[in-house]
Amino acid sequence: MKNVLCYGDSNTWGYIPGKGGERYDWKTRWTGRLQDLLGDDCHVIEEGLNSRTTVFDDPVKGYKSGLAYLPPCLASHKPLDLVIVMLGTNDLHERFGMNAYNVGEAMKRLVEEILHSGCGADGKAPAVLLVSPVRILETVMDNFIGQEMGASCVEKSRGLSQQIKRIADLEGISFFDAESAVCADPADGVHMNSDAHAALAGALCPVVQKILRNVSK
Q1: In this structure, which topology does domain 2-216 adopt according to CATH?
Q2: Does pTM top 0.85 for this prediction?
Q3: Which of 114, 162, 174, 204 is the most exposed place for a label (fewest CB within 10 A)?
């Protein structure tokens, strides 16, 4: 059985757009749908946390650093064949002062942590797939999320895909642009609706299958 870890934020956790913190069930979330598509030969492990960043402990919300939680997370789930990382949106909060390029550099730290973790089969590195998140829509400014993140988040999010792909190319790992398959729901401008979760799982499935076939060689 292949073990696939999905490491992300509220769009992996399953935050329902415009519902103030309600969550889609496992069968609706893209991780659960991916599990169904991959079948019993794969074990999809979901590690989604609302407001998770790449490397920052949030001075307001605390304990949100993806980098800080990553080593024990990898160790607790090993051996891992593939780690899918979909992060970056929350780094765009004004309080972090990050642009898209710097988010890419922060993502690089996560990738290198995974590649040097020894949490793959036989103590090797697992494969890594970076997924750039959906772009933030202008409707985010109509709700509390936009008020928290600041007006600059919309423009900065447009450059995330390019920068995350840059890191994937630099590290020689796989990349997928979520925006090529889905978009955020205008209800809050950040989170995916149930149809988008289904579409993302469908788009990721052949990508994941190809990676896992190569891992088996």
Answers
A1: Rossmann fold (3.40.50)
A2: yes
A3: 162
pLDDT tens readout for residues 141-171: 999 999 999 999 999 999 999 999 999 999 9
How is residue 74 written in tokens? 């990898």
Cβ–Cβ under 8 Å, residues 54 and 99: no
Give the C-alpha distances (Å, rounded to integers) separating 200 from 34, 139, 149, 152, 196: 9, 21, 25, 26, 6
The answer for 147, left when phi > 0, alpha when psi is -120 to 50, beta otherwise, is: alpha
**Could you tell me if 127 and 211 are in contact, meaning their C-beta atoms sit under 8 angstroms apart?**
yes
Angstrom CA distances, 95 to 35, 50, 88, 138, 197, stand at 36, 17, 14, 19, 29
Tokens 């995330």: give the residue.
Answer: 160
| DSSP-derived secondary structure for 175-186 | EEEGGGT----T
Mean pLDDT of the chain: 97
Buried-state track 115-125, b at ≥16 Cβ within 10 A, e below 16: bebebbeeeeb
Check: CB of residue 56 under 8 Å from CB of residue 19: no
Q: What is the pLDDT of residues 9-48, one digit of tens each?
A: 999 999 999 998 999 999 999 999 999 999 999 999 999 9
CA gap 166, 172 in Å, rounded: 10
